[in-house]
Amino acid sequence: MKKNIITLSIIITGIIANAQSDSATIRKIYTDALTNGKSYSNLEYLCKKIGGRLAGSPQAQKAVDWAFKAMKEAGADTVYLQECMVPHWVRGEKEIGKVITSNSKGVKPVNICALGGSIATPAEGLTAGIVEAKGIADLKRLGKENIEGKIVFFNDPMDPTLIRTFGAYGKAVMQRWAGAKEAAKYGAVGVIVRSATLAQDDNPHTGVMSYNDSITKIPACAISTNGANWLSTYLLTDKDAKFYLKMNCQTLAEEKSYNVVGEIYGTSKKDEIITVGGHLDAWDNGEGAHDDGAGIVQSIDIIRIYKSLGIKPKCTIRAVAFMNEENGGRGGKKYMELAKLKNEKHIAAIESDAGGFSPRGFSSTMNDKQKEKLLSWKKYFEPYEVYDFTHNGGGADIEPLNEELGVPMLELIPDSQRYFDYHHTAIDTFEAVNKRELELGSAAMAALIYLIDTYGL
Amino acid sequence: MKKNIITLSIIITGIIANAQSDSATIRKIYTDALTNGKSYSNLEYLCKKIGGRLAGSPQAQKAVDWAFKAMKEAGADTVYLQECMVPHWVRGEKEIGKVITSNSKGVKPVNICALGGSIATPAEGLTAGIVEAKGIADLKRLGKENIEGKIVFFNDPMDPTLIRTFGAYGKAVMQRWAGAKEAAKYGAVGVIVRSATLAQDDNPHTGVMSYNDSITKIPACAISTNGANWLSTYLLTDKDAKFYLKMNCQTLAEEKSYNVVGEIYGTSKKDEIITVGGHLDAWDNGEGAHDDGAGIVQSIDIIRIYKSLGIKPKCTIRAVAFMNEENGGRGGKKYMELAKLKNEKHIAAIESDAGGFSPRGFSSTMNDKQKEKLLSWKKYFEPYEVYDFTHNGGGADIEPLNEELGVPMLELIPDSQRYFDYHHTAIDTFEAVNKRELELGSAAMAALIYLIDTYGL
């Protein structure tokens, strides 16, 4: 009995000592991120020297070269590329949008931008009547008689009452993704889509849209929320107004591109992998700061933090700059395919693709036992104001790993209130990111990786 | 026994029904704040039409008039003023700061601003050598031999490793508050103080400083963090450089000013009061958006939310726009004195004076039983991403109520990472505030008031 008590006492002492040592390590991680972090200066370079970098563009290739170098500089034991073919869509000249009134008010310019993947209008532009639809479901109500030959103006706003803005985005974005192909079924000749944001401003938000090869392809553009509100009100008084749309975007031949992978070799479990990443590509109209320069520089900084503190992980840690999340997801798929081909053992995959804002928690997709383990680590994060560990979630680039190979996936949840103010716009710039908020994200992910590496998942 | 079971069952059913109904009410509060909220448009008016509004200024009087009107418009059952005398300090002409190098590099302009309460320099300005001190404690090390006749450059930075930036501020701000009177003891002729911020930029941050009547008063100004870093580095190579400082700020005669109080009358407990407020005055160099326009418009919007939803509180709810928090705290003192004089029963006082950012929780100063009750309400807030209920805290304007009358006090904790980027600067403008984040603050406080009103504290 005495022996048992002594054993138990040793175990308990061990657990307490470990917990203290884990807390101390996590404190060091945060301190390092907040005092020596390179994520902010890296983000400045990526945004200001490279800028928008849609897959297939020369800027995307520059970003690949830069990420390779940045991972080396962060101290990765090895850095390599994973080749993948990516779509190559180009916006072309600045789009033109105008309302041609049916009265004495003449022509009113409207700030629009092509949705990613859209076809061009005819070279001389496209002019047609306008019909407003509150989302895709509304097309049926309107019917062919109201839609045929017209431009459909999708004007379903995001729901402001949802606290997490991603929920509202997920709902409203369907009109952007599927609006053109659905409206074309009713004979529409083009679509204008209300920007997916809760901000009231003049910035049109681009983003990917889709066609169906068996349905006529029609051009699709975004209008700002202020523009959409104005247009909706204007149409009440001038039902015969027309819209003039001119875009010369093109889908070119696919291009060769790359994921960039930087590793810290594991010591005792080198063949077991923890992946952390974001996506390197970004829409061409901004600098891709929150989406997703933040995730890239945070992931790279995790390598730097580990090396700076001399933490030697048991498993191999991989920072991955995925290519082509925005309009194809080819990088994420390629990463999974290679993992499958090589029969790699992935312990967990973590993504940061929700902006460089103050971290709030981690969402996850994994089994109950793993969720329980995650929740048991909450105490380590609370001193850093990271509280939220219960939501389901993941990331677009690591979803193939989860879906095909069953790898547990997690995503950093930053505060979401400002994200869609910037998302896919010209104002998603370096200046919109706060240095400390960005660094706290690197630290939270580095701390989570430390716990997964130490205790498994 | 059966009867007992039935009674118990009724009680439990009642508790569950209440919890559901409370959740539903809180959901309505959030929905109303996020869809009908007037805090953002009110903030725009306060910032853009009135702007900086230091106590005693004509702008402060305009703000009083505006707040009175805004509370009426929000639907308050009564609005009234509480007169108080306030200090009246004026900045005067734009301050001039220059480093006069002792070498061929000539004169280098430095962006400075007077600290609130500082005396002026002589009309022709003040020129003296510079000695750098790492905070007040460093004065002793330097001694009179290094300080006498010189300008002390206090350059103790905020600690970036603390997660809550207010902790770092509290430490670093002592050199601003007491630097002049402490340096004067060693014969200093002026002080330049590193701005209390973690941002690296060119904005000097003003803020209140203090004198001791028995010690020579010397002028005090703030320098930006970029300026401080440059000056510190420059002094390494040019120890004989001098600083030229010209300020013509003045302390004028005290002025009459006011707290503005708007009430929703309680139904069954009209004489029991729940106070919620922020401060109406703001430094003259910015628009006082985060500090503390946010707290003002949030408090006013609580009245509007209650009226809009038809919630009839048992207790009286008072929204208070306190005057002179920044450089005297006279409004807060006056509020307490009147409460004491009238023998008012205050159930709780809540303050919002930490910026209009995403709410994270509430800090409090009250007894353990009350803290426990607060913690039991956490579940109602978690769906709104408000998690943090354990920290001690309060607010400067409600502190007298707490200290003198023992009123439990609470403060809204918004995310603190960006706050000191704006605090007391020219960039604390309307544009720095996000509409939803601001509205979530009103909602969180309205929900807390609802729970306090329903269940007591």
Give the arrangement of secondary structure elements.
Two copies of one chain form a homodimer.
Chain A: H1 2-36, H2 39-50, H3 58-74, E1 78-90, E2 96-100, E3 107-110, E4 112-114, E5 126-133, H4 138-147, E6 151-154, H5 165-172, H6 174-184, E7 190-194, E8 220-223, H7 225-237, E9 242-246, E10 250-264, E11 269-279, H8 289-309, E12 315-322, H9 330-341, E13 345-351, E14 359-365, H10 368-376, H11 378-381, H12 399-405, E15 409-414, H13 419-422, H14 435-455
Parallel strand pairs in A: 5-6, 6-7, 7-8, 11-12, 11-13, 13-15
Antiparallel strand pairs in A: 1-10, 2-3, 2-9, 4-8, 5-9, 10-12, 14-15
Helix pairs in contact in A: 1-8, 1-14, 2-8, 3-8, 8-14, 9-12
Highlighted features:
homodimer, 457 residues, Glucose Oxidase, domain 1, elongated
